[in-house]
């Protein structure tokens, strides 16, 4: 009787062991093997955070997770957004200053402004002039075509005269072709400070000699121009000679007492 009971117990134990082992084998087959390094395949996966290369090895560098990655590869980055559609520039108004003063005409009028014998090489540009002119809607844009041409001719005549580098020597093509040669007054004889001006008082140590294409002078003109552009030109008058066109061409507003 004891032998019979012992036989049944051993048989039940063996059956249970077989079931457990079979279950574990099935679980391993379902989950697959993982490895941080070493060999890998579709069923023998790498550990989390590692990639399986096409050569069958695990790793987490570009050699494994880059172009040679075969399994467990990182997700590709989202595609770049498409470029914005081309937007053509707005058409130029028929009243724009550029319809009268073309770049070719600008170069013809001021052929020596970038000559090495001048002192404002690179300062006066056609694009700078057009940008500045457009800041003043009434400049060269009101009245008949003839009156607009006269206004622009007067402006270039006055500014070319103020900035000429052709005076006092036998300048090629004559002094009239050497406009825009200076951005700062040469050898100023005064600091151009009007002490009677209460609204725009002079700042100690500053000089308000001619600067820019109209050779802006005197503290009261620097003060008005600075107020318009939001700059303290009384304390920093040389900003007029550092900004191409807009500040130095403040006379386009027609409000300065030059």
Automatic annotation (TrEMBL):
The keyword Disulfide bond belongs to this UniProt entry's keyword annotation: yes
Keywords from the UniProt entry: Carbohydrate metabolism, Chitin degradation, Chitin-binding, Disulfide bond, Glycosidase, Hydrolase, Plant defense, Polysaccharide degradation, Signal
Any Pfam family: Glyco_hydro_19
Superkingdom, natural source: Eukaryota
EC code(s) of this entry: 3.2.1.14
Signal peptide (residue range): 1-36
Coiled-coil residue windows: none
Molecular functions (GO terms): chitin binding; endochitinase activity
Catalytic activity: Random endo-hydrolysis of N-acetyl-beta-D-glucosaminide (1->4)-beta-linkages in chitin and chitodextrins
Disulphide linkage map: 46-58, 51-65, 69-73, 118-181, 193-202
Active site: 162
GO annotation terms (biological process): cell wall macromolecule catabolic process; chitin catabolic process; defense response to fungus; polysaccharide catabolic process
InterPro entries noted in UniProt: Chitin-bd_1 (IPR001002), Chitin-binding_1_CS (IPR018371), Endochitinase-like_sf (IPR036861), Glyco_hydro_19 (IPR016283), Glyco_hydro_19_cat (IPR000726), Lysozyme-like_dom_sf (IPR023346)
Keyword Signal: yes
Class in the EC hierarchy, top level: hydrolase
Domain Chitin-binding type-1: 37-75
Name of the protein in question: chitinase
Organism: Trema orientale
């Amino acid at each position: 009787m004891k032998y019979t009971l012992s036989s049944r117990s051993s048989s039940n134990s063996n059956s249970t062991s077989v079931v457990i082992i079979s279950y574990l084998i099935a679980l391993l087959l379902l989950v697959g093997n993982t490895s941080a390094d070493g060999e890998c395949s579709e069923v023998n996966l790498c550990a989390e955070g590692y990639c399986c290369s096409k050569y069958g090895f695990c790793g987490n560098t570009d050699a494994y997770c880059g172009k040679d990655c075969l399994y467990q590869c990182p997700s590709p980055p989202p595609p770049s957004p498409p470029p914005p559609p081309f937007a053509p520039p707005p058409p130029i108004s028929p009243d724009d200053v550029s319809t009268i003063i073309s770049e070719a005409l600008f170069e013809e009028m001021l052929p020596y402004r970038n000559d090495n014998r001048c002192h404002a090489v690179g300062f006066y540009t056609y694009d700078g002039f057009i940008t500045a002119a457009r800041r003043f809607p009434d400049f060269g844009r009101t009245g008949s075509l003839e009156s607009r041409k006269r206004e622009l001719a007067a402006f270039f005549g006055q500014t070319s005269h103020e900035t000429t580098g052709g005076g006092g020597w036998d300048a090629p093509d004559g002094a009239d072709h050497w406009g825009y040669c200076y951005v700062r007054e040469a050898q100023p004889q005064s600091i151009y400070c009007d002490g009677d001006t209460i609204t725009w008082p002079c700042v100690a140590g500053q000089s308000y000699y001619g600067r820019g294409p109209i050779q802006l002078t005197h503290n009261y003109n620097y003060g008005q121009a600075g107020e318009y552009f939001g700059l303290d030109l009384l304390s920093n008058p040389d900003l007029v000679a550092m900004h191409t066109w807009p500040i130095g061409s403040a006379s386009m507003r027609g409000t300065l007492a030059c």
